[in-house]
Write a structure and sequence with these properties.
Layout (H helix, E strand, L loop, with lengths): L21 H10 L14 E2 L11 H7 L10 H14 L3 E5 L2 H12 L5 E4 L4 H9 L3 E4 L20 H11 L6 E5 L12 H14 L2 E5 L3 H11 L8 H10 L3 E5 L10 E5 L2 H14 L10 H14 L2 H20 L12 E5 H4 L9 H13 L1 E2 L1 E3 L1 H4 L15 E5 L7 H16 L7 E5 L10 E4 L18
Parallel strand pairs: 1-10, 3-4, 5-6, 6-7
Antiparallel strand pairs: 2-8, 7-8, 9-12, 11-12, 13-14
Helix pairs in contact: 1-14, 2-11, 3-11, 4-5, 4-10, 8-9, 12-16, 14-16
């Protein structure tokens, strides 16, 4: 008999959750323009919008906050964060930022010139925005399996070596300032990159004088998948795997709000002293002094502690298995999701879930709205809305994956919450034909998924027919 496991922590404080009626949820959804980003958190029962900044901090992190040194320059807290990054990730130089996109902005301004190309293993929204705003074109060189939600390939985040060579041959290595390697790949479904692929990509890039910069936001989750799936790593610690991973890079951007287990903060790290000097000059313009970069001393203390906690093998095993707990339930009931199950979220395949809707009807946006309406569960669209428009043609970018992301915050919810989510999704799947598509009634020019507003395409003006679920607590 398979023995059941429990969380590797115990609960010391609780936060009551809001439970609205179906009618109240309908009103909240309409006020938000059917965009889950615009729903007030106090109107949400189970919040799976993002794992960014939504982690529960440990008792040691809360204690560390009280040790925060708020000196404007050269604080103790900065020194502790700097040492933690060096210990765990191995980089020589660190530039603190208010969050990951602050690091993306600085990197893009330092490295990109107009007309450059930045290859990567599938785009991420803010990363690509900064690259394009600085004059580069993003080029997706991820393997084809990443665009197939049904493929069980274990490392769907891998770079396609042939695609990378073809790009270098086409545009020339001098027009490629760096390769952006995400570990894991968010928009592919939280899919990892193998150590073998990292090693080969780094070798190729070094031969051509191209730097490799990691988007390291969920690097600990990637390390766990290497330990679990790649030959030769099953007996290695997460800490050892991480060190080897980063040895195949020249630097990284980090949103500390994910695998550093804090609510705010990030950093840009590198080994190049000349790049570090330039970054120190630029961080003052956009973030703050090089010894705080947009974070308070208490934030840096909490992040330093979180960096060490995240590499605990028991923590990361439970984190991955809780995501898998939800995903396995959906697979067992026939719900179409991205497979294999990723590290930070379960991704519903909205195209397969709602086959009666065209992609231009925003099926993932409609499904995310329907899930909130049914049970107060907030999720996120990751499809045609997130992909934005082509800068040349003005038409919608049409990604092959049209997904709804159910993102699991770290150390926040129990598996009972995952059961509620699974039950709601199954209920929606049984009446999926009643869910209508959307039209966009307000479209921001950049990163439109944050603030766009929608209206249903149904004749009645309602998202779906029938009555919703009345949420209750046993």
């Amino acid at each position: 008999m398979k023995r059941r496991t429990a969380e590797p922590y115990r609960i010391k404080a609780v936060e009551p959750l809001t439970i609205l009626t179906y009618e109240e949820r309908m009103e909240a959804l309409k006020r938000a323009g059917y965009n889950t980003f615009l729903i007030d958190s106090e109107d949400v029962y189970i919040d799976l919008l993002t794992d960014s900044g939504t982690s529960a901090m440990s008792d040691k992190q809360w204690a560390a906050i009280m040790m925060g040194d708020e000196a404007y320059a050269g604080s103790r807290s900065w020194k502790r964060l700097e040492q933690a990054v060096r210990d765990v990730y191995g980089f020589r130089y660190i530039i603190p930022t208010h969050q990951g996109r602050g690091a993306e902005n600085i990197l893009s301004q330092l490295k990109i010139q107009d007309g450059d190309y930045v290859p990567g293993n599938m785009y991420f929204t803010t990363t690509r925005a900064h690259q394009e705003l600085n004059g580069a074109a993003f080029v997706d060189v991820i393997i084809d399996e990443a665009h197939d939600s049904c493929s069980e390939y274990p490392f769907k985040g891998n770079i396609d070596i042939l695609k990378l060579h073809n790009l270098i041959d086409e545009v020339g290595s001098e027009r490629i300032p760096y390769l952006c390697l995400a570990v894991t790949v968010n928009l592919a479904g939280g899919q990892p990159v193998s150590m073998e692929n990292m090693r080969e990509v780094y070798r190729i890039c070094r031969n051509y004088g191209i730097e490799v910069m990691f988007d390291a936001t969920r690097c600990v989750e990637n390390a766990y998948f290497i330990k679990e799936r790649e030959e030769g790593y099953s007996t290695k610690s997460i800490a050892a795997i991480l060190k080897e991973m980063f040895s195949y890079s020249d630097g990284c951007t980090m949103s500390g709000k994910k695998d550093c287990l804090v609510n705010i903060g990030g950093f840009l790290a590198m080994n190049d002293e000349e790049l570090y000097t330039r970054a120190r000059e630029l961080v003052v313009v956009y973030e703050g002094m090089p010894s705080y970069g947009g974070m308070a001393g208490r934030d840096m203390e909490a992040m330093a502690q979180g960096i060490y906690e995240a590499i605990d093998d028991h923590y990361i095993e439970h984190r991955i298995h809780q995501v898998r707990y939800l995903g396995d339930q959906l697979i067992e009931t026939g719900i179409p999701i991205v497979r294999p199950i990723g590290g930070h979220a379960v991704f519903l395949d909205a195209r397969a879930f709602l086959p009666h809707l065209k992609q231009e009807d925003f099926p993932a946006q409609a499904l995310a709205a329907a899930l909130y309406l049914d049970a107060g569960v907030r999720s996120m669209e990751r499809g045609i809305v997130s992909a934005g428009r082509n800068k040349v043609t003005g038409k919608h970018n049409q990604p092959k994956l049209e997904l709804v992301r159910l993102t699991i915050p770290r150390r926040v919810y129990t598996n009972n919450h995952m059961d509620v989510v699974a039950d709601s999704i199954l209920s929606l799947y049984q009446k999926k034909d009643q869910i209508c598509g959307f039209q966009m009634v307000y479209e921001p020019p950049t990163l439109r998924f944050f603030n766009a507003r929608f209206s249903p395409l149904s004749a009645s003006g309602e998202l779906m027919g029938g009555e919703g679920h009345t949420v209750s607590v046993n």
